[in-house]
Each structure stands twice: as structure tokens, then as C-alpha cells.
Amino acid sequence: MQERINKLRGTFDSLGVDGVYLTSRTSHRYFTKFDNEDGYLLITQKNAYAFEDFRYIEVANELLSDTFTVIEPKKTGTLEDIVKAEGITSIGFEDQEVSVSEYESLKSRVPNAWKPIGNTVVTMREVKDEWEIEQISKAQEITDKAFSHILNIISTDITENDVAAELEYFMRRNGAEDKSFETIAINGKKTSLPHGVPGNAKLTKGFLTMDFGATVNGYHSDMTRTVCIGKADEEMKKLYNTVLAAQLSALEYLSGGGVNSREADKVARDIIYKEYEGYFGHSLGHSVGLVIHERPALSPSNENILVPGNVVTVEPGIYIPGKYGTRIEDLVVIRKNGITNLTKSAKNLIEI
Fold first, then answer.
1. What is the pTM of this model?
2. CA torsion angle for 63, 69, 72, 73 (degrees, to 10)?
3. For 99-118, how does the pLDDT look when each residue is reduced to its tens digit (9 = 90+)?
4. For strand 90-93 and strand 113-116, is the pairing parallel, antiparallel, or unpaired?
5. Do the strands 324-327 and 317-320 form a parallel or antiparallel pair, or are they unpaired?
6. How many CB atoms lie within 10 A of CB 201?
7. Burial letters 9-44, b for 16+ CB under 10 A, else e
8. Do strands 184-187 and 219-220 pair parallel, antiparallel, or not at all (unpaired)?
9. 132-191 confidence digits (pLDDT tens)
């Protein structure tokens, strides 16, 4: 925690601030490793304060007191008190997280200069340390186990909602604190919808796409697998194998030390567009961490150079409206000379 705080302090001069007031739940967890949707942090050059209400104060004192001065505002102090005591004249705030009404309230309480910090914390979170990677890896391990489990459950006697619920229940039973996002489990023609919503109709023969993940200590995993209920015809096999070839080629590019986000996308997109021009409508991937969609993204418009510690998805897909679609997604860590693929589930076309 101290290293992250010090890194934030290192931005104060360029931001032109004496301290930063952090109000988002994600930032609170990033700097404390403690989840409190109602907690707030004030980081100054000399001190770090955690404002925690009565519901969380006991746990906060236990977990944070070595690094933060823990304050229960109604009893031990307020933001106004600390700003005055430390002589702070300029405070950074998370302008992308604060509503207009919240900003006006802050200005009325503390009439100092409030300066937006933009993507400062978001940029810090792009590179994961080994502890963060360990949490993501644990989450992905649970996700892989859930996929192995669901293969024994899938049949035409259950619904898309049953599949989604079973995946989520299994992940909870096996150590996840929550799902990463609303689980996608869609069958047949609905697989042409990249973010289709599960329904109550029973499964039928054809593709079944499952996009799901777990969270561990706030960190997300993300995986997609498409299977076939019944036998796939030659056209379905061609589509599936094209997606698989695109993904394997992108992974090979990254494994060989390729670091250009746009080029990684292009490697996969070129393979798909040789046969299915225009049917891959989203980016190749995105970063994953405390939020399911973080930066950097692997997209045609992104010139970002990937660096060690980035954790990104590699998820090409083909979606033919009114017919069907396929997506295959792995989660990888960018290393100095390649990648570590955290996803262990098989990628061959599974016919159930």
C-alpha cells in the first residue's frame, strides 16, 4: 500500500496539488486493499487518511492503521479540519468519478482550489504488481474449474439462465467473492449477439457461447468459450476454426514479444477478414483488474505499447446476424519477453 501511496505523491508536482482526495470505491480498494463503497481517502505529502464510517471502522482500524490515520468523521475529525491543519491550498479530485452535485458540495465545504486529476489513478492501475497478478490468476483458476464443471451440466433439458446460474453458483462455492460481470450464456441464433442476455428457453442444438469470470480480492477474471450442442456442420467448424486461428496467431504475436496493441488486433483481424469481412465488430481485447474493462485496450485505434504487468484479454469473434457466432477468450499477463496465459481451458471445438 505504501508503494502505491508514494507513487501517487510523485504526481503531485505535475498536478499542481498538495494532496489528493479519492472518493471512488475502486481507488479506495486500490490504495487500501479494503473494500468500502462509502470510504474516502486523503493523501497528502506527509500523511494518509482513511475516512470510514461506523459500519466499517473496526475492520478499518485492524487493516489500515499501520499505513493510514483512520478517521470516523462524526467522532474524530473531518476533511475540513485536516485541510486546515496541514495548510493545504490545492486538492486533486477524481473528476471522472465525481458528479456535479458532489463537486459543488466539496467546494462549499472546503473552499480551496480543487483540481481534476483525470486518469492519474487509472494509469497507475494499468501495470499490475505480482500480488495483483496472483489475485487475477486465482480468479481465473476458479473460472477454468467452472467451465470444466458446466460441461457435465449442459443439455437440452436446461435453459441459458440455468447455465449462467450454475456457473455463478459454482464459482461462489469454489472461492469467488462475486462474479466479474453479468454472465453471458447464449445459444443458437443468439450467439450472433456479442453481449446477448440469457433467457429461459431451453437449450437447442447449435453453438452455446459462455462469457464469464470470477473475482478474488476485488480482482477480475474473464473467459469466453463456445461449444456446440450436437454435431457441428462443416460451415460451423470453419467459422469456429477461423476464430481459433485468429486467437492463436494473436497469442503467438504477443508470446514472441509483440507489444503494439493495434498490431495485436490486426494479426487476428486480418485472419478473420479473409473469410468473414466485417463480422468482427469489437476490439481484440481489454485490460482486466479491479474493473473488468481497464486500459490498455487491444484495438485498431489504440497505439499503446504493452508493458510488463499489463493483464489483457485476447478475444476475437465472428458474429453473423440472424445465424450464429463464436468467441474464444483467454486472459494473459504481458511479461518482459512474452506472456503468461492464465487461461487453461481447452479451446478445441467441444461437441456435447
1. 0.95
2. -150
3. 999 999 888 888 888 999 99
4. parallel
5. antiparallel
6. 12
7. bebbeebebbbbbbbbbbbbbbbbbbbbeebbbbbb
8. unpaired
9. 999 999 999 999 999 999 999 999 999 999 999 999 999 999 999 999 999 999 999 999
User: Which phi and psi (to 5°) does residue 318 adopt?
Assistant: -130, 130
Q: Which domain holds residue 276?
A: 130-341
Domain boundary among 66, 94, 124: 124
Number of domains composing the chain: 2
Question: Residue 303 has what pLDDT?
Answer: 86
For residue 206, give the nearest of 237, 228, 224 by alpha carbon: 228
Together in a domain, 230 and 98: no
Q: Which amino acid is at 69?
A: T
- Beta-strand ranges (E) seen in 64-183 are 69-71, 90-93, 113-116, 178-179
- Partners of 113 in beta bridges: 90
Residue 349 domain-assigned (yes or no):
no
Spatial contact of 212 and 179, defined as CB atoms under 8 Å apart? yes
Question: Does 346 reside within a domain?
Answer: no
34, 28 contact by CB (below 8 A)? yes
Same domain (yes/no): 149, 275: yes
Peptide bond into 296 cis (omega under 30): yes
| CATH code at position 26 | 3.40.350.10
CB atoms within 10 A of CB 312: 26
Do 306 and 165 fall into the same domain? Answer: yes
Task: Assess if residue 173 is contained within a domain.
Answer: yes
pLDDT at 258: 87
H/E element holding 328?
none
Residue 244 belongs to a domain with what CATH number?
Answer: 3.90.230.10
